[in-house]
Amino acid sequence: MPNERGVRMTDGRTTGSARAFELLEPLVQAATVRVHAPPGGYENSRSHRTGPTWGSGFFIAPGWVLTCAHVVGEGGAAVRLTGREVGITFSAGSITGTVTGRVECVLPERLEERRPARHALWDLPDLALVRVLAPVSHACVWLTDRSRPRFDEVAYFGCTEDLGTPEITGRTTRLRGTAGNGAAIRLGDDDEIEPGMSGGPVVDLARGEVVGVLKARRQTGGGGLAVSVVQLRTLPMAARGQVGLYRRIMQAHDLYHYDQHLSDLDNRRTWTDVHGELPPEEGDPYAGRGRLTPGERTTLYGLLAELPPPGSSEVVRALVEAARGEEPDPLPPAPLSWRDGLGLLHDPPGGTGEAAAMLRYATDVSVAEYREPATPGADEELWDWVRATAERLWRPLRRELGERHERGLAERERRRRASAGRTAHGPARRSGGLPPGASVLLEVWAHGWEDVYDWRVSVLAGPAHAGRVTPVDSGVRATLAGLPEALRAPLAEGFRRCDTHEAAALLEVAVAPALFGLAVDEWMVVGGVPLGVQRPVVLRHPAGANPGAASPVAASPVAASPGGVGPGGAREHPADREGTDASARWARVQAGPLQDERADCIRGRPRSPATEWLTGLPDNTVPVHCRAADQEPTLGSLHAVRDAGYGVVVTRRPPPDPGASCAPFHRGLREELADAGRAEVLPVRLQNLRGRAYGADPDAYWAAGTGLVWEDPARPLPDEEPLQGDL
């Protein structure tokens, strides 16, 4: 006899999903809103004096509505999205209210610069966050914490006018797959999606959680697309020292449901209550056992929300790996909050109980380093809850977690003592140097003799785990002009994984010397500010390339000299080669003082440096190039200085005017090197120079186009080149 979820009804739903829809419908309808013109504009008696419907949306946290960017973009390309005021009509019990909201941001950010043609699909993820401009009481949905949806039955909700007046209705279908690299979800054609439903929520009926935002319907027939709510993690990152919008909203979301769960003032069903009443999932290996109960899960999310957020995405991933027993799913978008870490612990490998993995994770979070001090007692409250919950599940688990907690406390105390010692006796990393953690690596290869390029974006774990590389994304056959757009999303994902609240992560650009003129520092990725202003950007010689070999796009060949590959597939650094002074040069130039030396010109006239002259320069020399990197003699000079063991080299993109003197550049750089004193601060100082020039400081204009070659032996590069594209 089939189980409850296996009985198929005539409308395509199972009895289990029909019951889930019945339970969830009131909760979702209470949080779903109609989006229209601001109150007072486009008055129309047929539409409750709020004008025609633009689309739908839903409350995800107190005061915050999520919808589609194309919904708030009603009015055409001339309408500015961010900062625009819109009308929000919602229901609170039997009362219908209308309030003004302001668009705080849209995704992707480039929608402010470029809009699609009328009736064309807007670029993914096509999301907008609207902040309500008045304190109102309203319901909020429950958002999924999982990175990937399950392809099963869902319900979608939005505003329709079937009976002549706007109302929020719900319909059901099944998820059929993903699109846009997982950013979008394909909906089945079981029912029709009407235009006013755009921006409404898509709800997983088995789990009782919102997984998507309705985006589009097919031109012919049923079905359509929804945007995964996980794309909220791609919201712009916060400035240093600030909590980002995504973390603020998710914290408010979890505390809202935690407060609702604990409240004795209202006897209406909460999302937590309904989660406990949903029919069991078909094929659940745990059959409900080995998982946290809905009440325990809501409580855990609330306790985590009361802690300061993690310092970086890598902190979350490291704790998930320790609790799960294997590296978590590396696919984007990166986990940014403690809550996101829990989403990576569902269905752990090897038959490990899901609840046990979550409790191990929560134990580690209770003794983790936070971006700022926790509210007194918040971490202890989390630990007390973990210990009590562990006893319910399996008594020996409480002992295991107790030992884990004690080790974590001891390690945290050791770190704090070490930090205090550095404060008293001098920092471990001198002020102004690079952040010691993970960096983002961009590699670009010429595609044979064609004018197209392959690329790869990865995360380098940093000196503490030298050689450890996590891929982010890759592509083939991009033009130089198309690289900034092709790399916008992959680079943004890499930065989300590596940035901390203390510092923006380093971007390492590994390209052949002929591409050292690539203006990566001027690319706009997020925030409307050039990359080189937001973070340190340095150049690297490509992995696996012979140091003296010419690039295939070089203007003229250069004699080849042998290179090496170190153990583990990492390219051998010049400092590791016998017969060179690279190791001494790197150590000496890091400590300073610095001495600049023109490598490719004499008083503005081009020259090719002799090998004997280069090798005879003092170890604290920084070779400087002022001419085009893809032309001789500069191209040959860049190879020569690397062969001579120089790990810190300056280059630049010449100004458009070929007659412009390079003297101001050399004069300004000499002063900058003298003021810096040591090489270890140069990447950050160059970032500051770019910021000054971007802020229209005439005294920094000389630094335009300056690049820094930074061959740090503590950051070895991977030795694999991407596969060539189809011929």
Q: Can you describe this structure?
A:
By secondary structure, this protein is α+β, with helices and mostly antiparallel strands. The protein has 17 helices and 23 strands. It has helices at residues 15-31, 69-72, 245-262, 271-277, 294-305, 313-324, 338-343, 354-366, 378-393, 395-425, 483-498, 531-534, 582-591, 611-615, 634-643, 663-676, 682-694, and strands at residues 32-36, 53-61, 64-67, 85-92, 95-107, 127-132, 153-160, 167-179, 184-187, 201-204, 209-217, 224-228, 439-446, 453-460, 469-478, 507-510, 537-540, 595-598, 601-602, 605-606, 621-624, 648-652, 706-710. The strands form six sheets. Strands 1-2-3-6-5-4 form a six-stranded antiparallel β-barrel. Strands 7-8-9-12-11-10 form a six-stranded antiparallel barrel. β2 and β3 form a beta hairpin. The chain is globular. 45% of the residues are buried.
